[in-house]
Amino acid sequence: MRTQVCIIGGGPSGLLLSQLLHRKGIDSVVLERRTRAHVLGRIRAGVLEKGFVALMREAGVGERMDREGFVHDGTMIAYDDHLFRIDFTKHTGTPVVVYGQTEVTRDLYDAREASDGKLIFNVEDVVINDADTDAPFVTYSRDGTGHRIDCDYVAGCDGFHGVSRQTIPTSVRREYEKVYPFGWLGILSETPPVNDELIYANSDRGFALCSMRNANLSRYYIQCPLSDDAADWTDQMFWDELRRRIPGEAAERLVTGPSIEKSIAPLRSFVTEPMRWGRLFLCGDAAHIVPPTGAKGLNTAASDIHYLYHGLADWYLNKESEGLERYSEKALARIWKAERFSWWMSNLLHRYPDQSAFDLKMQRADLEFLESNESAQKVLAENYVGLPF
Ligand code: RFL
Ligand code: PHB
After folding, report:
1. Ligand 1 atom at shortest distance from the alpha carbon of 221
2. How far apart are CA 258 and CA 41, in angstroms?
3. Quick one: 5-72+95-177+268-345 is in which CATH superfamily?
4. Known catalytic residue: 384?
5. pLDDT of 45-100, one tens digit each?
6. In what order do the strands lie in the sheet with 96-98?
7. Residue 7: beta bridge partners?
8. Taking the model in full, what pTM does it have?
9. Chain mean pLDDT for the chain
10. What are phi and psi of 49, to 5 degrees?
11. What's the gap in Å between 3 CA and the centre of ligand 2?
């Protein structure tokens, strides 16, 4: 088989790129290791920045998001049993949209399938060959049979555990990583959200986050030790712990019910450089990871896709190669800022096992400054709603 762009990974990054290219008449094939149902079963991001929302619309898949997504003009921060608000719209003129990654991915799958996009599921043994030449090709097996796809370019959109990043030789690749000494235990429950905006809570028992998917679907997280097993947390234990970590006024309103999903996610900051090697371009979690505290993971994937999509379109439609040549540099410039924000927000809100009395005072001073200082609130708001592409 031959295509213009072979996309490894059918998560949000790969699907969005494929859909955007399709609308410019550029052909692609998406290779996904799992089934569609498996990809849609992952409960992940919930908050979309303006830039992501714009890309979804540009890809022609914004209709349901515009109808069903919740526009949030601000967020609540809690510490010491009280809440204060950061007003995004006042400080930046821009809200965020709460619309789950599952729905984003479903809309993209539907659009690709409606236009007969080439999505190949259940692929195994994907290998990217000759990416540093003018004739790259990708091999994989499916149901025990080997296949080969010749292409002009390869987009590595296969997440943190994919093969694309590993294809870049270690002599060229530099990796920067910070692993946090805790995880997030998350649950999804068919209950009304405790608040109409998100609540990020710093408590002396550890971080908690109250989020949502819709009027009767809530998403909650609590910081937990990495050694915990989600199966050992009963729903009752989870709700009791969440109540202790959020201000009393919110705890009293909390409606609990059975969880329909429960899992633990580790927290990591990670960046690989460069994000391009020859004709291979890395996008999204394949190239970088942020702790979820700033809601940046999916949104940083979107800025990569924006740069790569425009680079490819400029090349195929106008024979201009600058966008592709500068892809890594442009993508990384934005990524490092999102890394800094996610790291800072994680430090602000979590309890660390080795935190000294001095560290705690610093964290508290940071929270008090944020609560009382409009400039600090503006800085948080600008980063949270997303820096420009
Ligand atoms: P994905 O979603 O991991 O998709 C990669 C796809 O590639 C497939 N794959 C392969 N396919 C073929 N061959 C191989 N060898 C392959 N290896 C892997 C995988 O099966 C998969 O389908 O990466 P992508 O597309 O770059 O998307 C990134 C986002 O999923 C991620 O950044 C966000 O979910 C992060 N994230 C959040 N981001 C936000 O912007 N806002 C949020 O509110 C937010 N909350 C979160 C999050 C991530 C979380 N977890 C569980 C890590 C909350 C959580 C709890
Ligand atoms: C979510 O709704 O899953 C969510 C929201 C905000 C975050 C992280 C996750 O910062």
Report:
1. 55
2. 18
3. FAD/NAD(P)-binding domain (3.50.50.60)
4. yes
5. 899 999 999 999 999 999 999 999 999 999 999 999 999 999 999 999 999 999 99
6. 47-48, 96-98, 70-72
7. 30, 155
8. 0.97
9. 97
10. -75, 165
11. 36
